[in-house]
Structures are given as C-alpha cells and as structure tokens.
Amino acid sequence: MRSVSVLGATGSVGESAFDLLMRAGGPAAFRTVALTGGANVARLAGMARALRAEIAVTAWPEKLTELRSLLAGSGTEAAAGSAAVAEAAARPADWTLSAIVGAAGLPPGLEVLNRGGTLALANKETLVAAGPLVMSRARDTGARILPVDSEHSAIFQSLQGEDLDSVEHVTITASGGAFRDWPLERLALATVAEASRHPNWAMGQRITIDSASMFNKALEVIEAHEFFGLQPERIRVLVHPQSIIHAMVTHRDGGSIAHLGAPDMRHAIGYALNWPARAELPVAKLDLAALGSLTFSAPDEARWPALRLAREAMLAGGASGAVLNAAKEQALDDFIAGHIRFTDMAPAVERALDLAAREPGFAQSPGDLDAVLAWDRFARRAAAQGRGAA
Ligand code: NAD
Ligand code: MG
Fold it and tell me: Which pathway does the UniProt entry assign to this protein (predicted)?
C-alpha cells in the first residue's frame, strides 16, 4: 500500500487532495502518514480520522490542546508548531503533497527532498524563493518533484516523450483575475473583497488576490524558469479568460502542444498522485462545442507590473526570487490589512528588490535555508518600509 502525506491539508488544494484520496478508497487505498494544517484544527482532526493518519500537525502551537482533544481515542498523534510540521514532512512517505501557502512551505518541502522523497509541489513559493537550492537538493538526494501548479503540470504533461532541447518556448495562460476589464484608474480603489473573487478558479484568498495583481503569474513564470530550467525569454504569458488552455509548449519545428482541461485542481493533483499512470478522476470533461470559443490577448504590463518584476528578477538571479516572494507576501499582508492600496503592492516589491540589489551577496543565489530566510526577512522589512507613504 502506498503511503502519503499532505502538508497544508486544510486549504483549498489540500481539500481537493483529500477528496481524491477519499474517493480512491481512503484508508483502504492509502496509508496516510502525516496531515498538517493551520488554525482549523476541527477540519484537520476530521481529515485525520477519516484517513487514519499517523500524525496530525497544526502549525499553530496554541491550537495543540484543542487538536489533542479532537483526536482523543483516534490513534492519530497530535503535534504543533513549524518545527513539528517540518518533522512530519521528514517522516518517510511514498508521496508528499506540499499545499501550504507561502514561504512557510519551504522548510517542510526541503525535508521531503532531504529524505529523497517524491514531492508533489503546489507550493510554488518553494521554487520561487529557493529554486537553485531546491533543484540541486533534489538532484543530490534523488528526490523527485512533480509539479502540481496547473500550468506547470500542463507543461510537464505536454513534454512527456519530448526533448526539452527541441522546445522554442512555453506559454502559460492567465485568466486575468478579478480586474482584467477594470479601467486602470479604478485599480487603486480596489477593495480586498473585490480582489478576492476569481472569475474561474475557487482557491485560497491569497492566491486569488495574487491572480488579480498578476503576482501569481509572476511567481509561476519564475517557477517555470527554475523547474524546467528555461531561460526567461523562452517563457511567455498569455491572457486567456476562460482558463481552458493551461499551458502550451511550442517546438522549434512550429508545432505547439497545448494542455486543455476544466479549471479544477483535482486534475493536476490527481495526475501527480497517479503519475506516471493516469487514473479516472472526478473532473468534468471538456465540451468545446458548448464553450464555442476561446479567446486570448497579450498581457498589459501597465495593468500588471508584476510580470515585468518577474522578468527582471529572473535576469538578476541571485537572491531575487527569495526577495520578490517575501516582499510580495508582505505587500499582500499589508493590502489585506488595509495598510496599502492594491496598486501599492508592485511598487513595494520593486522597492525591496532595489534595496536588496545594493546588499552584499545579493548576486549569489542562497546556498542554504538560513540564507533564504535571511533574504526573506530583509525583503519583508524593505517592502513594509514604504507603508503609509502612498
Ligand atoms: P489555502 O490558504 O487555501 O491553504 C493553505 C494551507 O496551508 C492550509 O492548510 C493552511 O492551514 C496552511 N498554512 C497556512 N499558513 C501556514 C504556515 N505558516 N505554516 C504551515 N501551514 C500553513 O491555500 P491554497 O489556495 O490551497 O494554496 C496552497 C498552495 O498551492 C499555494 O502555494 C498556492 O500558490 C498553490 N496553488 C494553489 C492553487 C489553488 O487552486 N488554490 C492552484 C495552484 C497552486
Ligand atoms: Mg497556477
């Protein structure tokens, strides 16, 4: 029986993974090692009971007593805190999904790679903040990373049986998020509630707002650069409001292979779960005649400066990814808290990148977790500095 762990089980991606595991037979089909979550310990305990997990971990230490009592008599061990999340990730499992949001996913993700495990990676921040470190760790230990971000899963699937050297460029699509059609001058007035509504995908609040600002696509471009080793000029972004084509690989001979599917994360998670096989999944099959048409446009960089920042960060290399990611997280926190406007986020990230570029060592890509975390702290401070200056 295969063993699995799900980090960030109580989130949007985590719930989709739980759904797939339960449909596949739950504890009769998989041995669940670890499930981790945050404040929602009732949901975490419910999942742990349903899957008969060995251990359930909340990242929030103050929630330990509650989790323990929810798990009483279940046979599932309870633990709490970031170190416990990383320890749970280090427990041997055949397949581990990282569906934690933010840079908090990096330490447990590295633990999976350290033990040479298979890491199904939804947590794009792992590759954005520490791509070279993560990829070299995987090479050293023989660990495998399977992309779960839908665009990267789409590229990965489109590349099966193909030679990366024959690829001229890849295209990842973007829905355009909540504000695709808003007049530019209205963007500064966008509220958190408005930015939290995605036209096509049901996702966690943070990635939904990142979709409206295009920072999600900025992270994904860097993620593709790090994971597939593609140079920045070989990665394109295309606005595609219907979110049916997720990505496309264009070969030097003029042929393009696109990946199409309903916007449902259970496809990409299920693909990674069953890889290299394919299994029946509860995902709606496309009816293109009913859809009628798919539309596309080039992204407007005046509307979405995040895409320019991603390109500049890739060209600068070094600590850029760690800085861009953490500065973005800080700016997003500040927008959600009402300290800055929607349109202040990109300038905050740009300020952090500019300040970081003047620091010694910026040109070297961080060689270990501590170095990544030091840049992460620097970037959060730098991004927060301009707060209220708007
Ligand atoms: P979410 O906010 O719905 O869930 C996040 C999960 O991480 C929860 O279980 C939460 O408890 C846990 N968590 C939050 N902070 C934590 C911390 N500090 N330490 C440990 N655990 C913590 O997020 P989501 O939308 O499911 O996204 C998860 C990841 O997957 C993100 O990296 C996101 O970019 C990526 N992703 C999401 C989708 C999607 O459809 N939601 C699609 C592609 C990629
Ligand atoms: Mg994506």
Answer: Isoprenoid biosynthesis; isopentenyl diphosphate biosynthesis via DXP pathway; isopentenyl diphosphate from 1-deoxy-D-xylulose 5-phosphate: step 1/6
Work out which ligand 1 atom sits closest to the CA atom of 216.
34
Residues with Cβ within 8 Å of residue 255, at least 6 apart in sequence: none
Identify the CATH number of the domain in which residue 355 sits.
1.10.1740.10
Residues 155 and 143 in one domain: no
Residue 200 is labelled as binding a ligand:
no
Domain membership of residue 274 (yes or no) is no
Query: Which residue, 113, 147, 181, sits at the end of a domain?
Result: 147
- pTM, to two decimals: 0.98
User: Residue 334 is part of which domain span?
Assistant: 317-390
Q: What is the ipTM of this complex?
A: 0.99
Contact yes or no for 55/25 (Cβ under 8 A) = no
CA–CA separation, 258 and 159 (whole Å): 10
Q: Is residue 348 part of a domain?
A: yes
The pLDDT tens digits of the residues spanning 245-296 come to 999 999 999 999 999 999 999 999 999 999 999 999 999 999 999 999 999 9
Q: What total of structural domains would you count in the chain?
A: 3
Residue located nearest, by CA, to atom 31 of ligand 1:
101
Residue 272 lies in a domain: no
Q: Whose CA is nearest to atom 7 of ligand 1?
A: 100
Q: Which residues are near ligand 2, the ion (C-beta closer than 5 Å)? A: 149-151
Phi/psi at 257 (5° precision): -115, 120
178 shares a domain with 143: no
Contacts of residue 311, defined as CB under 8 A and 6 or more positions apart, other chains included, come to: 221, 232
For residue range 164-189, list pLDDT tens digits in order. Answer: 999 999 999 999 999 999 999 999 99
